[in-house]
Each structure stands twice: as C-alpha cells, then as structure tokens.
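Example pasted here:
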Amino acid sequence: MKKQICILGSTGSIGTQALKVIEEHADLFEVYCLTANNRVEELAQQARKFRPDSVVIANEERYDELKELLHDCPEIKVYAGKEAIDEVVQAAPIDLVLTAMVGFSGLSPTIKAIEARKKICLANKETLVVAGELIGALAAQYNVPILPVDSEHSAIFQCLVGEGNNPISKILLTASGGPFRLKTADELLHVTKADALKHPTWNMGAKITIDSATMMNKGFEVIEAKWLFGVDVDQIEVLVHPQSIVHSAVQFVDGSVKAQLGVPDMCLPIQYAFTYPDRITLKGEELNLFNHRLEFFPADQEKFRCLAMAYEASRKGGNMPCILNAANEIVNEAFRNDACSFLQIAEVIEKTMNIVSFDANPSYETYIQTDLEARRKAMELLSL
C-alpha cells in the first residue's frame, strides 16, 4: 500500500521538494491532500499533476478562483479556510502529514493531526517554538511520532538512531551564518532587504531567508531541538559552518562526536522522514569530501541579538517563546515591506518581550491570546 501524504504548504520550498520526492518514488507514496495560503495557480497546477483527493486554500477569498481553475477536475475536492485545513488533516486515509506551513499558522493543524494519530513530519519549526511542551505532551498522549524535516534536526535525529538512551553531552547545531556573517555591526546599519535575501547556501522562502540573516532561524532551531531531543537549552551549541556540509552533530558523554554530512539539499531529510527507519535511493548530487573544506566558528550573539533572545526566551519558558515568535513574524514582514530597518528587527522583538504579559504555565488558549497581544504590541512599536 502506498503511503497517503498530506502536505500543508505544498507551494513553498519544502512542499515543492517533497513533491519531487513523491514523484521519484511514486510506487511508495501518493498525495492525498495539498494546501496553500495564497498561491492558487501553483496549487491548481500541483493538483492537476498529482491528482489528490482534496486541496485547500487558506485564504477564503481565493476559493472561487481555485474552484474555477480546477473546474474540469471534479474528482478533486476543493475547500478553503483555516478550519478546512484543521479538518482535512484528520481524514482517515492519511498516513502522514508534512507540516510545511510558515509561522504560527502551523500550530492548529499540527495539533489536529496529532489528535487524529497521524505521523508528523515536522518542517514548521514555529509549532515547537511556540508550544513545544504542549506538542510533546500531545504526541506522547496519542503515541504519535514526530520526525524532524529541518536539515539540522534531521541530522541530529540520524546521529541518535541506534544510540538508545546513551546520554548526550551537547548538541552541535550548525548554521551557515547567513549573508551577513562577515559584516561588522556598523555595516549592518545599512543592509537592505535585497542584501538579506541573498542567502549564500540555501534556496528558501523569503520569510525564513530573512530569519536566517538575523539568525532568528537558528534561535528557533535551538528551541525546537530542546523539545525534540529532551535536552536543556544550554546543552545546545551553535556552530557557524559556512559550507553547510555538516548539517549538525551530537557529542556524547564519552567525548565522541557523531555528525551527519551531505550536500545542501532538503530532499534527503524530507525523504528520510517519509521512509524512516528505512533508507532508499535518492537522485541528486552525492557528497564528495575531496571538494570541500570544512570550517567552524563560534556564533556571535552580540552581533546577532535574535539568536541570544531565542536562548533567553527558552530559558524563561512559559509563553515567552510564543511572544518571541509573534513579534518576529511582524518585524520580519515589516522589514520585507521596507517598514523597518534590519537592526530594528531585534530592537522591536526585545521590547515586545519586555511588555507582553508573561504566563509561566500557558494553555493552548493562552498561546492564542499571547500571539495576538504580541503582534499588536510589535505593530504599535513599529507605528504600523
């Protein structure tokens, strides 16, 4: 039987690469549902090619447009709205859900998929950043595996396979350093959106590319690793590795280090999450170590305040990471819309963290309210 896959965020970078994996292994996988936020044309094209049972466009205003684009495919059910996404992930035939939506929007459907006992292939890091404790508890309650798709977390996961309960000394989380790794603090005063969108290694969506430039993306990955692997946040060390060949490593208490290496290609971690514990062939470039020099540098948390604030938020716990994420989503978009400077990103996030109501023991409803409050405060600070 082919595995039936639901892709949340199929038109984004992760979603499109996941469809490449599915196409390459059409004997093993089949698309059951595709969702997108706004890109109706791309979603319709994907639906025509992969013939899923259903498609969902989150933006309800674009429902009629999507329906018209698929008018000659009556076998494909067309839905719209966030509630429809929450419902579709629970469909009985689905074996696994790839959560590749961007931002806070990925939280609710991930919870619904867990409650429906679907295997989760997690590419939406904000889900664990915002509500890691809640997600972990639900996964345990419903006995649902959460398999990481981020290249770094997949690497850590692969390093831990076969290690049983062997204790970890620390996780070595690698970072490319982004486009501003070599810039001075003074030079960061003048960087532009165009500069920030030129990532040296990875081809990603605009939001995550800006997060990489601020190193907030790596901060989110620190928080995500804490929940995925059950370690204290101070056991996670960020190493700047410009070549992006070592995707991350684990150091054990005996001093040994296991690392996972590969070319910068998301198809491998996506496929591994789909097939775990098995490995199957994957077309594409293979790593040739003779062609690469491997370098590692400490991360500069003074220059990249977003990374430092992610550590601070994780140490404080409660709803603080939720505040961090909500403020970041606002300022990230503001920067992309030329409504704030690069250095203002960290300034606004820090101020938001200081003024939004803190709750040490948040419920799901608390996360919803915190997200709304933090967004509102960040927008006020930006005068939006």
